[in-house]
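= Paired protein data =
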Amino acid sequence: MTISLDVLSNIQNDLVTLNTNLKKMVGAKNPILYAAAEHLFKAGGKRIRPAIILLVALSTTKQSIILPEHKRLAEIIEIIHTASLVHDDVVDECHTRRGVTTVHEKFNNKIAVLAGDFLFAQSSWYLANLNNLEVVKIISKVITDFAEGEVRQGMSRFDESVSLESYIEKSFYKTASLIAASCKAAAILSSSDVSTQKYFYLYGKHLGLAFQIIDDILDIIGSKTSLGKPGGLDLKNGNLTAPVIFALEDKPELYKLISREFQQSNDINKAIKIIKSSNGIQKAYDLAQEHTQASLQALRKTKNNEVQEKLTYMTEYLVNRLH
């Protein structure tokens, strides 16, 4: 499933410019760091987050225009997101991302960690240059949320007693925080009222949670193409996500496989088969739909215009990746 070009028609040129600017913005003086950063951005990606930011900008400015600050925010957010992926890939020992070799696989772990740190530092510098303290505070908090999410995930590996509430909190820190903060920051840059900022934050928060839950379902049933990374990797690493948590409710045989950390040769395949035969995937999908509806409900409380329909489409697109 690909994004309709009609949805991106208002922002297509801006997304093309964004791709060009990203390579300029990460112009590291050190050739290894530059090569690592260039390798990342050459891999592309759907640029979902920048697209959402630009659409929120169109939805909230008085003349439905995108300000230079909005464009820079979209670039900053994509750099932050990419930096988090570099670190994620090291932690998860992921060998491919977006169809290309990961940075730590192409270079080494040390270079990957430094490249991720460099990207975070670059994004912070550009963020400060937006000269909007409120936006700086909101987006800076996201970077601490990433660390919180990674620590929580690391501390709960192979913990079959992990609760759904704990999973949602971790998902907020790892994914939803960035989208929520981005949407609110775009509304702030448009000089929107506090109520509009709040509703766009809620739109982004619930969209981010739905997005993560769908990603976690795809880890069980999807392919490398749909995920951008190998399927089953999260499960293998002991990250127990919504479909697994729900499956544990009616498939106690899963406990044994998890407790021995999938050490036997066919354990992962057995676990995936058990999860697929349970109600886990359907219940996880229902949970994603709940957050989708909460996202759209928040969106409906903002100013109604043509761009809002495109944001609605983006929300539905992200959840319908299963089909």
Summary: The beta strands are 96-97, 100-101. The radius of gyration is 19 Å. The longest strand covers residues 96-97.
